[in-house]
Amino acid sequence: MKSILIGVVAALLSGTAAFAADLYEPPIEQPIAEPVQVASASGWYLRGDVGYAFTDLRGAHYYQGPGRFVQDFDDADLDDTWTAGIGVGYQINDYLRTDVTLDYIGDADFEGSTTGSCGVAAACTSRDVAALTAWSLMANAYVDIGTYGSFTPYVGGGIGGTQVRWDNLRNTSCETADPSNCDPTIDHDGRDKWRFTYALMAGTAIDLTCNLKADVGYRFRHVLGGDMFGYASNGGPGSDEGLYLHEARAGLRYSFSGCQEAYVPPVEPAVYK
């Protein structure tokens, strides 16, 4: 009888264990969140940019005749051109940064005309051609408005100087009624000079990696007026009234401050009871 009872108890225990084994499910491991690398809030950076500049010559004038009267060009047009620049800057905090930039303004062709008397007729029209290049050195400050995903919009401003370099101006005056009847072409020496310049910027930075950003934006530059060409054969000198440059730009900014790992709270393991 005792052996029978022992066998029944053993059978019941083994069945209970088997039933418990059927109900048991091993805990599912939760994935471990990887730390996210982000750019440091401060540090030095290098930048490089290229762009296209829509130019607006504010006017041009010259001295003409024995009384040396100032006269405006009847027409004065400056072609659009390209720009390229480099710079070094410092990210002060999440919202403020500064940099110094050096930009080159490529060849922009000038064409103008005047009317008046000339050597071959009393009524003449001139054709005046030249070209402009420039170097611009600017100190800039920016406010980063905030970061939205990978995008950080900004606004900024800058002051500095632009060395405007005018090539020689070639002046050809021809009879208005007969454009083939012309005076000899006269060359006026071009002038170059540093001029005060200010700029306004707006754009957005786009995170490519934790220390590399693309930068696309718009910049307005106002270059003050100055000398344009010299005196020759009873004509000149001349000057321009300054430039407006409207630039669409794209470039890269590389930060030397390294990458930081953003804090990610640990995932609590699941508890099974």
Automatic annotation (TrEMBL):
It holds the Pfam family OMP_b-brl. Residues 22-256 form the Outer membrane protein beta-barrel domain. Keywords: Signal. SUPFAM superfamilies: OMPA-like (SSF56925). This is Opacity protein-like surface antigen. Gene3D superfamilies: 2.40.160.20. It comes from Rhizobium giardinii. It comes from the Bacteria. Residues 1-20 form the signal peptide.
